[in-house]
Design a protein that fits this description.
The chain has a single domain (8-152), classed as Rossmann fold. It is 37% helix and 15% strand. It is built from 4 helices and 5 strands. It has a 5-stranded parallel sheet, with helices on both faces. Helix 3 (86-90) links the parallel strand 4 and strand 5. The model has no long low-confidence stretch (mean pLDDT 92). It binds iron/sulfur cluster. Residues 19-20, 22-23, 57-58, 85-87, 92-93, 117-118 line the site of iron/sulfur cluster (SF4).
């Protein structure tokens, strides 16, 4: 996979839905000088309205359900959702806890899963690049559909 093939930078919005912060610390590690994914154009943004990728951690506490749906709807199309960490993917240590409504894919569609408790920075980076490839494919698909519609019209 050659990152030079991508057309533009990738902006990621990170949402914590009730994690223990273990995954969130690993996400920060991805941004620190040791891994430094910003050099490839991957950066965290402060608003879902500016994001290409919604990165979700945590098992989705009941109190976060509406926020998860709202934030998902605020990310413009085409968008990709990443679930980072076992508890957001299948409950893990919080499995069947009374206060949870997750896993994440019970609330919103998830495109990329990064398992681990917590996953290592390398796995998170690989997940982001997988999301990037998916996003580029979605953008190409949308472009082709638009061209086809123009030809028919
Ligand atoms: S997957 Fe593990 S480390 Fe990550 S938020 Fe859940 S419990 Fe914490």
């Amino acid at each position: 996979m050659d990152l030079k093939n991508f057309n533009r930078a990738l902006w990621v919005y990170h949402m914590n839905t009730g994690s223990c912060n273990g995954c969130d610390i690993e996400i920060l590690a991805v941004l620190t000088p040791r891994y430094d994914v910003e050099r490839f154009g991957i950066k965290l943004v402060g608003s879902p309205r500016h994001a290409d990728v919604l990165l979700v951690t945590g098992p989705v506490a009941r109190s976060m359900e509406d926020s998860v749906r709202r934030v998902y709807s605020q990310v413009p199309d085409p968008k990709v959702v990443m679930a980072v960490g076992n508890c957001g993917i299948e409950g893990d240590v919080f499995h069947e806890a009374y206060s949870l409504v997750g896993p994440i894919d019970q609330i919103i569609p998830v495109d990329v899963y990064v398992p681990g408790c917590p996953p290592r920075p390398e796995a998170i980076t690989y997940g982001v690049v997988t999301a990037w490839v998916k996003l580029e494919n979605l953008a190409k698909q949308a472009e082709e559909e638009e061209e086809e519609e123009e030809e028919v019209a």
